[in-house]
Amino acid sequence: MTQLSAAQTKSSDGSKALYGGKGTRRITVRDIAAAKERGEKWPMLTAYDAMTASVFDEAGIPVMLVGDSAGNCHLGYETTVPVTLDEMTMLSAAVVRGTQRALIVGDLPFGSYQEGPVQALRSATRLVKEAGVGAVKLEGGERSHRQIELLVESGIPVMAHIGLTPQSVNAMGYRVQGRGEEAAAQLLRDAKAVQDAGAFAVVLELVPAELAAEVTRVLHIPTVGIGAGAETDAQVLVWTDMMGLTGGRMPKFVKQYAQLRQVMGDAAKAFAEDVVGGTFPQDEHSVH
Ligand SMILES: Nc1nc(=O)c2c([nH]1)NC[C@@H]1CN(c3ccc(C(=O)N[C@@H](CCC(=O)O)C(=O)O)cc3)CN21
Ligand SMILES: CC(C)C(=O)C(=O)O
Ligand SMILES: [Mg+2]
Fold first, then answer.
1. C-beta separation of 100 from 89 below 8 A
2. CA 227 to ligand 1: nearest atom
3. Is the pTM of this model over 0.90?
4. Is 87 an annotated catalytic residue?
5. Where are the active-site residues found (predicted)?
């Protein structure tokens, strides 16, 4: 039923589709819910600055996450753990300014919501008021249930994040989550807990594809997979990973769609050689 209605929606009127749809009004969490009912899959990318975000907005990416992966990919930290709420607020504000259509989700960084619901509300309120995000994301299933509830009651849409939760790297490492009967049952409980608390979507990070498929069938809110197989409602990747800008070893779940590290390095070298060799600037680049 959902597959058929998705096809009909796209062929009759493209304006509704999250990707490929027309119109420049800001996408809302209600549009996200409607996409699951249509059986429509959608893409999400991270973004950390206005210029990159404007490129993705023009490309039609309907949802952007200002991830705390900015810690590794933008700010030079080893992990996401040191990222501060001030940093996330500044980066989120830039992404909002660079976009017109995409729903912008701001990641709450480690230490900005673990104290409890009141701290979570204070932190999320900064991202909403100072940066202008349309939603926030936080890590944890059952353990973050109370935080999600208060934010949603207060009018702040929440994207949850379960499975591998990188802010807990010191406790859990970067390991596949939900392998084995007990861990799978826990992941399902976490998924139901965030849905019951009112989350509008949930990220499933590094969980077996079969389990992610089951969670996606059981929940009425959309699942957003990263390293979680092909059956989730949406897919997210860190933009610097999927464009080949991040250096070093890539997780297995990354597909590279461009080689920006090579392209940018070559451009920097070409400029340097022109300067050293005296072939830049030419007369056309000079004023008289
Ligand atoms: N650049 C970047 N990309 C990401 O996807 C990302 C970040 N940074 N920072 C925050 C978290 C950390 N993430 C990570 C980091 C490492 C692995 C990793 O090494 N995974 C192994 C599998 C380990 C296993 O089999 O248990 C892999 O090879 O994919 C996965 C996710 C995802 N997030
Ligand atoms: C990988 C995604 C889900 C994330 O949390 C981030 O980019 O910080
Ligand atoms: Mg994150």
1. no
2. 29
3. yes
4. no
5. 205 (proton acceptor)
